[in-house]
Amino acid sequence: MSLNKRKLGSQGLEVPAIGLGCMGMSQSYGPADERESVATLHRAIELGCNFFDTAQVYGPFTNEALLGKALKGRRNEVIIATKFGFRIENGKQVGTERNSRPENIRNAVEGSLQRLGTDYIDLLYQHRIDPAVPIEDVAGTVGDLVKEGKVKYFGLSEAGIVNIRRAHAVYPVTALQSEYSLWERNLEPEIIPVLRELGIGLVPFSPLGRGFLTGEVKRAEEYPENDFRHNDPRYQGENYDENVKAAHIVREIAAVKHVMPGQIALAWLLHKGNDIVPIPGTKRRKYLEENIAAADIQIDPAQMRALDEAMAPEKVSGKRYADWMMSTIDR
To answer: Helix H segments across the chain?
Structure first.
């Protein structure tokens, strides 16, 4: 099992070809076991999957604190990405409200540094565009934090092409983090071409379609209410039935190759370009090892075409999020 390195953008950040999304370790997909989560983080380092993705709002705060605890004495072995930008009051996220005012960015970074037990963040993302704050002010503030040594690289999450260009003109954007997978292709028409024009890497979150592409799925109502999938439109009713049909191609190719469906979904992403670094989330060593092994799977051009066609956007049923969450996406 091996992981090659990839350059994420043109600013010099080198990361493993597959990273680790840590959100699920803070109970977004059902209960988490802290001991197993820490063991998963340590196993990831052993396997070279040392690009860890967290955020201030995961918990809130508890996910960063978990990483800080797990990585004590091992900071120089890992690349940490975290995010700011949602409004948090009294330890709780305030709906979809955002706050990217410069003073809040600075306060958020100080809090993240403290919880992570470090004096610098490798990659700092604005979690969502704040319509009340010009993106130039955000980019300028992060640029100042880079000069001060508190941050190394600047990223955006779910930003549209206008804000990507405006931010990049003020301070270079290293990476865009956005949902991208076989069943969510919204970046392909406009955003990926702009990223490549500007030399910005892509970090797809939910590369397994929030678990749908692993083949081990149930209908929305079968998940507990505190599980993200309980309210996912694509897991509900007729959408679920249509999406199971569309995803059949993933299971077919996996069977031919004697691998897991989720590994095919990750391999598809890796074959889409050397500037793409997916961050599948898991809180268990078993799935971590499965995900990392996907980096060694070869998919031939005919199989890539079959996957592209079977899971074209018009064949995937349902919105990617409920309306209240879609309202935060900058498109």
So the answer is: 34-46, 62-70, 102-116, 135-147, 161-170, 191-198, 237-246, 248-257, 261-270, 285-293, 301-310, 323-326
Q: What angle do CA 296, 67, 64 make, to 5 degrees?
A: 115
Please report, in angstroms and rounded to a whole number, the separation of the first and last CA atoms in the chain.
38
Query: d(Cα 200, Cα 222) in Å, to the nearest integer?
Result: 39
Is this model's pTM higher than 0.90 or not?
A: yes
Judge whether 235 counts as a catalytic residue.
Answer: no
Centre a 10 Å sphere on the Cβ of residue 218 and count the other Cβ atoms it contains. 12
Catalytic residue, chosen from 58, 125, 223, 240, is 58
Task: Give the pLDDT confidence score for residue 80 in this predicted structure.
Answer: 98
Domains of the chain by residue range? 5-209+272-297
Residue 325 has pLDDT above 90, yes or no: no
CATH of domain 5-209+272-297: 3.20.20.100
| Band of residue 119 on the pLDDT scale cut at 50, 70, 90 | very high
Q: Which tens digits make up the pLDDT trace of 18-71?
A: 999 999 999 777 788 999 999 999 999 999 999 999 999 999 999 999 999 999
Which pair of tokens denotes residue 297? 């799977």
The CB-side HSE value for 136 (13 A sphere, CA atoms) comes to 3
